[in-house]
Structure to design on (482 residues):
């Protein structure tokens, strides 16, 4: 569950951008490790309570201790407490070399809280006062990301371009190029975006960055309904390799090619192209291709589609025991009152916690649906909880009710497709709204191709693959079919 982004430390390490954020995969920890983390936080809070003056202001500590305590608070998303230590360091040690790092921490904490204006102001200060430093370069990148999330798209594109021009060998030079492309699209400047595609391909010729720029062009052509160009770009992409650094996959590109052929009215070619997308239990784009094949087949080709579907169903039956449906009563109750598909809730739980009610992430997301306390407090009243204690998040019924309330909120925001709901659960509603707008189409595969965080795109595909299996194995009342 992502109310801000659960693994905050990993999110800070990665590039916060319009294009990609390769955050660490969320995981559950052993009880001993959880206890150590909680005891560290409790110890820091006790120390802070003792280290305040009569007015309640933090006392001057060593620089290292202020940074350590800020890091502890940051790891559990206690942003105000982290900021207090960063600011105390800045106030008491204005010449210390850690000041730029503290300012960057303050700006990022506002960014994660979605207080983008405050973050933008801090980033600007960093750029002005410490521009040549690593923190100054990071701040320039974050200032562009803040403008983007404030809807100031042209200014954001200009900031990313400024990074390219000022720091041609900067740490974010590759993503800065890619961010310019997508941000110009959001600014309604597709021609200028294509110019930057060319510039990026020239700068990074033969690399994964060039492949990513080509993929950005493919998505642009699809959004702008430039079907011949989309097909040509897809064909060019399919001749390349797809290492880990590439932000797409062969199946995704093949699906977009088939989709473009279909939209161009080239139905027979589209059928063949969809057929070339391999299907399987974990093949999200294979599933979408199979759905399109069923719509295009007609009587003469129905047997081909049926054989493809039968192979997948046989594979699903073979792994059925890996897709249980526990907590049936609680899930059905929470789902039916909110008009949700209980199988989608199961798909999310499987991905979030693998049905372990005591699961906990390093950043404090808890329970079956990996809810954070701020999410629980926000959605608790709608789920019938006037207050929620931390320990209640480990109770299956509570987690399911709170999670369902949040899912209902997301489905009301993004009706008609579950992919944006899954993407929001992991990557945030504000980002999803932008990706949907950029896609300009309701096709789920087109939307998913626009998901700008690598982790979130993978999450969406896994959740939807889980959902496909649960739909095959269970009725809407969670009764096993076979």
């Amino acid at each position: 569950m992502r109310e801000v982004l659960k693994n905050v430390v990993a999110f800070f390490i990665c590039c916060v951008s319009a294009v990609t954020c390769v955050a660490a995969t969320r995981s559950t920890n052993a009880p001993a490790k959880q206890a150590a983390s909680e005891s560290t936080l409790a110890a820091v809070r006790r120390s802070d309570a003792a280290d305040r003056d009569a007015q309640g202001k933090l006392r001057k500590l060593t620089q290292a201790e202020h940074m350590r305590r800020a890091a502890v608070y940051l790891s559990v998303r206690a942003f105000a407490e982290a900021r207090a230590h960063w600011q105390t360091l800045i106030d008491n040690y204005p010449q210390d070399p850690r000041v730029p790092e503290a300012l960057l921490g303050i700006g990022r904490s506002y960014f994660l809280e979605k207080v983008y204006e405050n973050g933008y102001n801090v980033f600007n200060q960093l750029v002005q006062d410490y521009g040549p430093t690593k923190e100054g370069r990071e701040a320039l990148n974050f200032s562009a990301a803040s403008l983007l999330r404030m809807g100031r798209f042209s200014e954001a594109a200009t900031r990313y371009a400024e990074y390219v021009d000022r720091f041609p060998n900067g740490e974010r030079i590759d993503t800065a190029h890619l961010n310019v492309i997508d941000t110009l699209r959001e600014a309604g400047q597709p021609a200028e975006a294509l110019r930057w595609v060319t510039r990026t391909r020239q700068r990074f010729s033969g690399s994964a960055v060039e492949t990513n720029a080509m993929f950005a062009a493919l998505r642009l052509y699809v959004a702008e309904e430039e079907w011949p160009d989309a097909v040509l770009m897809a064909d060019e992409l399919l001749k390349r390799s797809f290492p880990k650094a590439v932000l797409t996959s062969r199946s995704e590109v093949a699906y977009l090619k088939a989709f473009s052929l279909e939209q161009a009215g080239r139905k027979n070619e589209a059928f063949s192209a969809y057929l070339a997308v391999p299907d399987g239990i974990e093949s999200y784009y294979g599933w979408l291709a199979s759905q399109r094949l069923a719509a295009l087949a007609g009587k003469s080709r129905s047997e081909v589609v049926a054989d493809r579907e039968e192979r997948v169903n046989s594979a699903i039956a073979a792994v059925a025991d890996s897709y249980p449906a526990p907590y049936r009563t609680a899930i059905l109750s929470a789902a039916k009152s909110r008009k949700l598909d209980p199988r989608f809730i199961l798909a999310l739980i499987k991905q979030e916690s693998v049905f372990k009610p005591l699961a906990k992430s390093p950043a404090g997301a808890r329970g079956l649906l990996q809810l954070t306390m701020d999410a629980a407090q926000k959605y608790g009243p709608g789920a019938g909880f006037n207050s929620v204690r931390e320990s209640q998040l480990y109770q299956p019924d509570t987690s399911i009710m709170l999670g369902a309330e949040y899912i209902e909120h997301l489905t009301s925001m993004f009706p008609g497709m579950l992919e944006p709901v899954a993407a929001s659960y992991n990557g945030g509603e504000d980002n999803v709204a932008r990706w949907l707008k950029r896609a300009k189409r309701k096709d789920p595969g087109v939307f998913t191709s626009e998901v700008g965080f690598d982790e979130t795109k993978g999450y969406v595909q896994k959740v939807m693959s889980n959902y496909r299996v649960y739909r095959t194995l269970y009725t809407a009342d969670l009764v096993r079919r076979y």
Remarks:
- Residues 327-473 form a domain with the Lysozyme fold (CATH 1.10.530.10).
- The mean pLDDT is 92.
- Residues 97 and 184 are 36 Å apart (CA to CA).
- The radius of gyration is 24 Å.
